[in-house]
Write a structure and sequence with these properties.
The chain folds into 2 domains: about 35 residues; about 55 residues, no CATH class. The protein is built from 5 helices and 3 strands. Helices cover about 60% and strands about 15% of the residues.
C-alpha cells in the first residue's frame, strides 16, 4: 500500500468513525429533547397552580414565553376557560386570576 493510499484509508476510517459518533450524539440529543420537553398542558398547569394564581392574584408571562411554550391561542383559551381576565401590556401578558370585576384607574 502506498503512503497516499494509507493516508486516505486512515482518513476515510476516521471520517466514518466521526460520522457514526456524530449520529449517535445527535440521536441521543434528540431523545434528550424529547424526554425533557414537557407537554404544553404541564406549563399551563404549573402557571395556574402557582401560589399567586391560587390566591387570586396576578401572574404574568412574556409574549415570547407564551408563543414559545404554549402558543397564544391556547393560552388565551385557557385563561378564558378559567374565567380570568387577560391584559396585554408592552411585551407582557398579565392574568388576573379571579373572575371578579376589575377597573383600570388611569
Amino acid at each position: 500500500m502506498t503512503v497516499r493510499a494509507s493516508i486516505w484509508s486512515s482518513f476515510s476510517a476516521g471520517c466514518s468513525h466521526l460520522e457514526s459518533s456524530l449520529t449517535r450524539i445527535m440521536n441521543g440529543y434528540g431523545m434528550y429533547l424529547a424526554q425533557r420537553a414537557p407537554p404544553n398542558d404541564a406549563w399551563i398547569d404549573q402557571l395556574f397552580s402557582s401560589k399567586a394564581a391560587r390566591k387570586g392574584a396576578v401572574v404574568r408571562r412574556s409574549l415570547a414565553w407564551v408563543h414559545r411554550e404554549v402558543g397564544r391561542a391556547e393560552f388565551e383559551a385557557e385563561v378564558r376557560k378559567r374565567g380570568y381576565h387577560l391584559i396585554e401590556t408592552a411585551d407582557q401578558l398579565v392574568v388576573v386570576c379571579h373572575n371578579g370585576p376589575i377597573r383600570l384607574l388611569f
